[in-house]
Write a structure and sequence with these properties.
The protein is mainly beta. The chain has one domain: Sandwich (Jelly Rolls), CATH 2.60.120.10. It contains one helix and eleven strands. The strands form two sheets. It has a six-stranded antiparallel β-sheet with strand order 6-5-8-3-10-11, with no helix packed on it. The protein is globular, with a radius of gyration of 15 Å. InterPro entries: RmlC-like_jellyroll, RmlC_Cupin_sf. This is LuxR family transcriptional regulator. It comes from Pseudonocardia aurantiaca.
């Protein structure tokens, strides 16, 4: 039987609170940090916080993924489909282009599968006023 140490434990509640504070203070209204995985791992989990009214512009990801709402309320839009989610909900990230909007100050856990050795970002969006990648932490 495998055991875990204290170093393997992350309080998602604490991470959500900390990143909500950062998102509220940030000009762009968001904060994120990878809490597990990343380069050289088959899985990446990132805590993302968005201030109410903040939208992650349309982007696309070729990876399997889920969004777990840790706090708040968000809206995921893909094509003509719109899903509202609240604390405790788990959404499948669509394989098509989509946007994510914070209806309230919100914190999420984004979990994505990765292809080991693949150099491309999990998802990238570019617009006139922002560029961001899920591979980066937003501070």
């Amino acid at each position: 039987m495998e055991t875990t140490s204290a170093a393997d434990t992350t309080s998602l509640a604490d991470a959500a609170r900390a990143h909500l504070e950062r998102a509220r203070a940030a000009v762009h209204g968001r904060s994120a940090h990878t809490v597990h995985g990343g380069h050289g791992r088959a899985l990446r989990q990132t805590v993302i916080a968005l201030r109410a009214g903040t939208t992650l512009r349309e982007h696309h990801s070729s990876r399997d993924g889920t969004l777990q709402v840790l706090a708040g309320r968000v809206r995921l839009t893909s094509g003509r489909q719109t899903l509202d989610a609240v604390t405790g909900d788990l959404l499948t990230v669509p394989a098509t282009a989509h946007t994510l909007s914070a209806v309230e100050d919100s914190a999420l856990l984004l979990t994505v599968s990765l292809v080991l050795g693949a150099p491309d970002p999990v998802a990238t969006a570019t617009s006139a006023d922002s560029v961001y990648s899920w591979q980066e932490d937003w501070e």
